[in-house]
Design goal:
single chain, 6-stranded mixed beta sheet, alpha/beta, Rossmann fold, 36% helix, 275 residues
Length: 275
C-alpha cells in the first residue's frame, strides 16, 4: 500500500542554542488508511513530530512528504487542508456558541454553499453520535462529548489524515472507549489515515503499527502484539496490559500459559482449554 506520509531524516530543536535535538534525524512512513500509534515518555518528541507533520512547526533539516507533495513554506496551508488535528484539551478548540456553529466554523472559509455546509455539519455530528446536541452550548457538554464534537469539526472538513494528540488523556475510561469506537467508525467510513499520540493501551491496541520514541529518536516500530510482549513497557511510558498482569499471576500459580502476549479473549480461550 502506498504511503500517504513520508518523513525523512527529520530534525528539530525549539532553540538554536540547545545542544540536544527535540526530534533527531527520524525517518518513518505512514501508509494510506493505516492507524499508527506513537508512544513514549513525555518529552520523547511525539507531539513535536506531529506538529512538524501538520506544519505548525518548521523542521531544521530533513523533509516531510504528504500525499506526494513535499511540505514547504509555500504550500503549507494547502497541505494542512488534508490534515485534521484533535488536541488534548477540548475546551481550547471551541469557538462557536452552539455545537453546530462550532462544527461549521472550519467550513466557513472553504467557499461552500450554506446547504452543503448544513449537510456536512449534520453528517459529521451524526457520525460521532452528537446530532441530538447540535443546539447545545459546548460548555454544557461532558469531556467525552466535547472531544466527539472536536472530531466532528475535523471530519466535516473531510481531511485525508486525522491526528489525535493525546485526545483521550483527559477522559474517563468510558469516555475514552466511546472516543476510540468513534474514531474506528470514522476511519472505516471515510478510509481515513489515523495517527494517535497516546499512553492509552486500548488506543494502542486498535492501531496497525506502533512507533516508540525515546529522547527524540525512534526506538522501535512494531505491531501492538509485539509491543505488548515486551517486558520493559514501563520504560517507554506504558502500563502493562491487564491480560499480561493476569497471565503472569496465573503462570506463577502453576498454569501452563504461553510466554507471548495474549489478548483478553485469547487468554480466556486458553484458560477454558486448561479446565
Amino acid at each position: 500500500m502506498k504511503s500517504i506520509i513520508d518523513v525523512k531524516n527529520l530534525s528539530f530543536r525549539y532553540k538554536e542554542s540547545q545542544e540536544y535535538y527535540d526530534v533527531k534525524d527520524i525517518t518513518f512512513h505512514v501508509k494510506r488508511g493505516e492507524w499508527l500509534s506513537i508512544v513514549g515518555h513525555n518529552g520523547s518528541g511525539k507531539s513535536t513530530t506531529v506538529r512538524l507533520i501538520d506544519g505548525l512547526l518548521e523542521a531544521e533539516s530533513g523533509e516531510i512528504v504528504i500525499d506526494g507533495q513535499r511540505l514547504t513554506e509555500e504550500n503549507v496551508w494547502n497541505i494542512r487542508r488534508q490534515i485534521g488535528m484533535v488536541f488534548q484539551n477540548p475546551d481550547n478548540q471551541f469557538v462557536g456558541a452552539t455545537v453546530e456553529d462550532d462544527v461549521a466554523f472550519g467550513l466557513e472559509n472553504q467557499g461552500l454553499s450554506r446547504q452543503e455546509m448544513k449537510k456536512r455539519v449534520e453528517e459529521a455530528l451524526d457520525l460521532v453520535g452528537m446530532l441530538d446536541f447540535k443546539k447545545r452550548e459546548p460548555a454544557r457538554l461532558s469531556g467525552g462529548q466535547k472531544q466527539r464534537v472536536a472530531i466532528a469539526g475535523v471530519v466535516a472538513l473531510r481531511p485525508a489524515i486525522l491526528i489525535l494528540d493525546e485526545a483521550t488523556s483527559m477522559l474517563d475510561p468510558e469516555g475514552r472507549r466511546e472516543l476510540i469506537e468513534t474514531v474506528k467508525g470514522i476511519r472505516k467510513d471515510y478510509d481515513m489515515t489515523v495517527i494517535s499520540i497516546t499512553h492509552d493501551l486500548e488506543e494502542v491496541a486498535m492501531s496497525d503499527r506502533v512507533l516508540v520514541m525515546k529522547k527524540g529518536s525512534i526506538e522501535s516500530t512494531s505491531s501492538p502484539r509485539e509491543l505488548f510482549s515486551r517486558n520493559d513497557l514501563d520504560q517507554i511510558g506504558l502500563d502493562d496490559p491487564f491480560a499480561n498482569q493476569l497471565k503472569n499471576s496465573l503462570s506463577q500459580n502453576g498454569y501452563d500459559l504461553p510466554e507471548n502476549y495474549l489478548t483478553e479473549s485469547e487468554l480466556e480461550d486458553k484458560l477454558w482449554e486448561l479446565l
